[in-house]
């Protein structure tokens, strides 16, 4: 006879979930606070959302952040998929250990070191810091995460399916596009979402590599918080939480639909 979870296990789960999500719930609630004081509830109001859409600095930083996240996540997913293919299918080749180590290095490297290294690189080659240097930095940061996610799916993928397509006359690129890619699409989508979220969240690396006209939202929020938390920050943080949550739910529903429609 199986016994249910103990009271200790239930309490540990509740405490863990509360520790993770209660601050987010409070942030969302206080984004609808009438009072300017973020810790004093003054009644329900959407005034700070109206004020947010009149704040050109925050909106500009949010637009820069979304563009950087979209471009860097796309580049990281493409390069990460290619790197995963090389690590899974290329077998043992000269320099594989170095290639693998360099691909996974950002996973264990402190962000301060990575940001400083990229800053020194851009300065040494004379590249002006701005929008594209932040994209390069975020692509470097998120590439390894995309590689890990896609590689985990490729390891379990049956290559006989792609070989059958080649036997039927499909060239290698077409066999990959029509057979392999649709099967690993959920992993590719998950890799893109992870890279997108990491780019949205980054503060340290962006602060090293940004320049005029490329101030991201985390940098803008950090600068504003030092002078006191504004309810507008709660409002824009809530909108970003909703954006990321919508993307995660969409990917989950897409995967569920593919599973239910699969024979």
Structure explained in plain terms:
The chain has 263 residues and is an all-alpha fold. The protein has a single domain (56-261), classed as MetI-like fold. The protein is 76% helix and 0% strand. The protein is built from 11 helices and no strands. It has helices at residues 7-30, 47-52, 56-89, 96-108, 111-124, 131-155, 159-167, 172-201, 204-209, 217-225, 231-261. Helix 3 packs across helix 8 (172-201) and helix 3 (56-89) crosses helix 10. It is globular. The chain starts with 6 loop residues before the first helix and ends with a helix.
Notable features of this structure?
mainly alpha; single chain; 76% helix; MetI-like fold
* N-C termini distance: 35 Å
- The tally of helices reads 11
Q: Name the average pLDDT.
A: 83
CATH class: Mainly Alpha
| Helix fraction bin | over 70%
- Overall spatial form: globular
Per CATH, the superfamily is MetI-like
Total beta strands: 0
Strand content: under 5%
Instruction: Count the domains.
Output: 1
Identify low-pLDDT runs.
Answer: none
> Gyration radius, to the nearest Å?
22 Å
* Largest sheet composition: none
Strand/helix succession = HHHHHHHHHHH
């Amino acid at each position: 006879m199986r016994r249910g979870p103990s009271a200790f296990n239930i309490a540990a789960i509740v405490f863990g979930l509360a520790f993770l999500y209660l601050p987010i719930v409070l942030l969302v609630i206080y984004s609808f606070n009438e009072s300017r004081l973020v810790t004093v509830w003054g009644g329900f109001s959407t005034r700070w959302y109206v004020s947010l859409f009149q704040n050109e600095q925050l909106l500009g930083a949010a637009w820069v952040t979304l563009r950087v996240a979209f471009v860097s996540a796309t580049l990281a997913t493409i390069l990460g998929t290619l790197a995963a293919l090389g690590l899974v299918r290329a077998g043992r080749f000269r320099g594989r250990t170095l290639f693998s180590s360099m691909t996974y290095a950002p996973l264990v490297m402190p962000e301060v070191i990575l940001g400083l290294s990229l800053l020194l690189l851009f300065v040494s080659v004379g590249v002006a810091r701005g929008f594209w240097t932040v994209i390069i930095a975020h692509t470097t940061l998120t590439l390894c995460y995309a590689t890990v996610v896609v590689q985990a799916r490729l390891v379990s993928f049956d290559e006989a399916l792609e070989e059958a397509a080649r036997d039927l006359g499909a060239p290698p690129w077409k066999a990959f596009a029509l057979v392999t890619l649709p099967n690993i699409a959920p992993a590719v989508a998950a890799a893109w979402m992870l890279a997108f979220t990491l780019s949205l969240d980054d503060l340290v690396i962006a602060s090293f590599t940004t320049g005029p006209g490329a101030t991201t939202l985390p940098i803008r929020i950090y600068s504003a918080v030092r002078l006191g938390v504004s309810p507008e920050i709660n409002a824009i943080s809530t909108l970003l939480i909703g954006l990321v949550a919508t993307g995660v739910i969409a990917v989950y529903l897409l995967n569920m639909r593919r599973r239910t429609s699969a024979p």
